[in-house]
Amino acid sequence: MAREFQRGHKAKISDLTAGTDLYVGVQITAPGLNFDISCFGLDADERLSDDRYFVFFNQPKSPEESLQQLGPQAGDTESFRVTLDRIPSSIQKLSFSASIDGDGQMSQVASGYIRLVAGGDEVARYSFQGSEFSTERAMMLGDIYLKDVWRFAAIGQGFDGGLDALLRNFGGEVAEDEPAADSGVAPGFAPPAAGGASQPAQPAPGFAVPQGGGAPAAPTPPPQPQAPQPPQPQQPQSPAAANAAAPTIAAPITPPGAQPGPAVPAPPGPPQPPPAPPQGQAVPPPTAPQAPPFGQPPGGQQQPPPAPGQAIPNPFGQPPGGQQQPPQVPQGPAAGMAVTLEKYREAPTGQRWTLQNGQLARVDLGIDGQPVLARQGSMVLYQGKVDFSHKGAGFRGRIVGNATGQEMQLMRCSGGGQVFFAEEAGYLHPIELQGDAICVSAEHVLAFDESLQHEVRRIEGHGIPGGALFTMQFQGTGTVVVKTQGSPVVLPVTPTTFADADAVVAWSAAAQVVVSSQVRLRRQAYPGHSGETVNLQFRGAPGNFIVVQPCEV
Predict the structure, then answer these.
(1) What digits encode the pLDDT tens for the residues 518-547?
(2) pTM for the whole structure
(3) Where does 349-393+407-523+531-548 sit in CATH, by number?
(4) Among the listed ranges 46-60, 159-173, 204-218, 285-299, which one has the minimum average pLDDT value?
(5) Strand 453-460 and strand 468-484: pairing?
(6) Superfamily for 3-170?
(7) What is the residue extent of each domain of the chain?
(8) Fewer CB within 10 Å, N- or C-terminus of the chain?
(9) Could you please report the per-residue DSSP string of 148-205?
């Protein structure tokens, strides 16, 4: 019997089936809409670092055929075959997504699902409806990801930007400022560059009509300034082809037929009609001081030191010929700024908890719909309808917290938006619990799902004031965000594992912890000591761990 998933639910695939050869079926009922359903093979950073693992209608399988698009069958709109034991180690996640081809929005979907089938039996299904969305034009359906073992997660995350938003999310590039040539291949993001051969030589957008004879005529303009007489008979053959070879903002390349002499090369050039021709012809390209010929990229764009300061459109790969008319490149400043800020763009991965960077975490309250408890004052940004309220610990909780030093001043975040958390630029580490438990000191807890159970745990010990230490234990299914100062280290527990109590951040709850005191009467009889008199000793079966930060608090 298939296990029904809700949005945000996750499970180990080994708990669903013992097989590794899976059938992934996607069905979407939406009259009048067409969908492109694809699979992104992502690396450990959740990026599409190898476009051969983008499986879609134009690339139906990966190189080793561990991912295959099978097409519509068995009542599914689209289907895939996934062979887990053949997926290379560089691929850590398979993200299945659907985007609308043409006009429409996800709210028009009547119903849909993504399901896993193994050995002919359906083992998992996540169903959704259009009422869960509004104006989105694409959505992430589900993930098969590797975290110690392969797991399945129901995502159900929509994107307002449609397919473009999905591509940027996974590291794809959408050539918005470079409209495609009339190659007809769709879409421009596709990894196999079907139409790339038509414009290999120029960085400018290919808005010129490709011609059969344009490619051989393009190399002839550069030699013209150095040897005016020999190239003159060849250039009048295809003036339009010269324009196609260098489709920049400048006019066609220097007309060869109008002036046989080297004195007046190009009257029709729009950027600098009077001054540029005499300078470009009189001085050879290696020593051109001011302005190179208008449409010739290799003629002198690298050498003129005074003029390039004004030619700002250079980041777009355009030669600095139009240096006196920068408004002819309207996208110059905007695109330059966008490129600079691209690495800081929000990363909407579709998961409930997402690290935007090492010091900023985001939670999507719309996934699962359960509230989050966070340290008061840790919210730095939120979007959508989010309610913040005080979360009291009660009379008994305040007494226990004050007595043990494990009191947490919490706020409750609920609603349907996204909340960003940070505190003092500390390093954040979301730890996902699936029925297991972890011990974390209260001062290192930034936020956690309200579904997690938490309580104060006592660590027995002798020879220290009070006779014990205390920590917080979190247990259940959910995520707890741990804060550290610096990058921590995770070590396996062995019989001889000792750690400073002020540097320990967390440890697996199954590990045995005792307080070890090295205070001796003989040592106290002499002035001074090592400063490491109280440590924590950890014991436990293989699989237990401790997390230690490079700082003592």
Answers:
(1) 544 444 444 444 555 567 888 877 788 899
(2) 0.43
(3) 3.60.160.10
(4) 204-218
(5) antiparallel
(6) sav2460 like domains (2.60.60.30)
(7) 3-170, 349-393+407-523+531-548
(8) N
(9) SEEEEEEEEEEETTTHHHHHHHTT----SSS---TT--S-TT-SS-TTGGGS-S-SS-
